Amino acid sequence: MKYMMTYDMMESMRNTNQWLGSTARAFASYPAMAMTANPFMDWLGAWGEVTERAFSRMVVKPDWNIPSQTAADGTDHIVHIETVLEKSFGNLIHFKVGGREPKKRRVLLVAPMSGHYATLVKKTVISLLPDCDVYTTDWHNARDIPVSSGKFDIEDYTLYLVDFMKELGSDLHVIAVCQPAPLTMAAVAYLAAEDPSAQPRSMTLIGGPIDPDANPTSVTEFGHSVSMGQLEQLMIQQVGFKFKGVGRKVYPGLLQLSSFISMNREAHTNAFRDQIIATAKGEASEHDKHNEFYDEYLAVMDMPAEFYLSTVERVFKNRDIARNDFTVAGKKVDIGAITTVAVKVVEGEKDDISAPGQCLAALALMTGLPDSKKAAHLEPGAGHFGIFAGGKWRKNIRPLVLKFIDDNADAPQPAKAAKAKASNVTAMPAKTAAK
Questions:
Q1: Widest pairwise Cα distance in the chain
Q2: Torsion 75-78-84-90 (CA) sign
Q3: Which among 19, 87, 152, 128 has a CA at the least distance from the CA of 389?
Q4: Per-residue CA distances from 315 to 94, 177, 181 (Å)
Q5: Would you tell me how many other CB atoms lie within 10 Å of the CB of residue 97?
Q6: pTM for the full predicted model
Q7: Which tens digit of pLDDT belongs to each residue from 315-341?
Q8: Which residues have a Cβ under 8 Å from the Cβ of 79 and sit 6 or more positions away?
Q9: What angle is formed at CA 275 by the lines to CA 272 and CA 277, rounded to 5 degrees?
């Protein structure tokens, strides 16, 4: 019960700050305040506007707001979001461009479940839509999922990805951004053993912690510095009374957000100070760079407790995937079983969350995959977000990824089948071969 009260107290603090911002904004805009030229009121109103917006965005799922796509004939096509497969903890959605012929490139973009909504990869989706038929994983906020829906850990996450890939078919190219990279690789390896025909044509892993110890960061060090018992006691709470998931144990999004901000506290403090100044001067706008970034950055979601804890324990502490000792539903997943899926690794030189080398470790684990199907790219000067959104993604990385997809668009022929085919040709009678 104390955890439910703690959750509600944290929500009350957020709500109170939103109310304070709203009150300050309303007070400063009261007509009587304009009777005297007092610049304090302008500053108070600006502080209230920025504060109210910031704290209100923390509990709102951002809209996708995908712009229409312009066809070769100059006509605009509206983008509709369709649910392809619906599950308790996340859906498979499709960005269908109305009136457009399906693109040959079919891409499953695996969005992170790391405290933000899938809309975090909205710019990635927008950049891929002109050239690809795009699907993505849309994870649900754990506080809205009833306890009756059961648990959701990294094994369940992996099986969700398996189901999504099976649903879309093998003529698919998977792109995993950050956190899901190791589990996406595990899902493909699982398919390689259980259902080889359902494997995608290619897999691009972008800035993911395949082996966190390959190049440790503050995230890695935090995972090693605390025990699982400490994490469960300090980070896990039960959803409060006003939500559908009341009683569900979660890692709260607000707690995760405080961790994100603490990592770059000075930069965030300066950003909000500058925005208050710009608002007071009348230079801020509804869709300026600050609001565009923080409307998404501040929108956080709760993660199921078992998912958060199993990620820390099995991916970071025990390095199950890095050691190729990961099990799903009681079955050992052998990364070396991947033999036909082309794999590309993308890393950022200045990535301080998943540093260079962590994702590159994936290629060494794929002992059954020929070198001709392996590729890697290190983007100079790019930080974590820059490798899947922003100018470096659009100008440098995206073209490489599309070329990689095109180079591996044809259905691969398994090595065993190729050998069998060769032996059959050798064994054919001379007259049959002549035909």
A1: 105
A2: positive
A3: 128
A4: 29, 16, 11
A5: 21
A6: 0.88
A7: 999 999 999 999 999 999 999 999 999
A8: 66, 67, 68, 69, 95, 96, 97, 98, 129
A9: 115
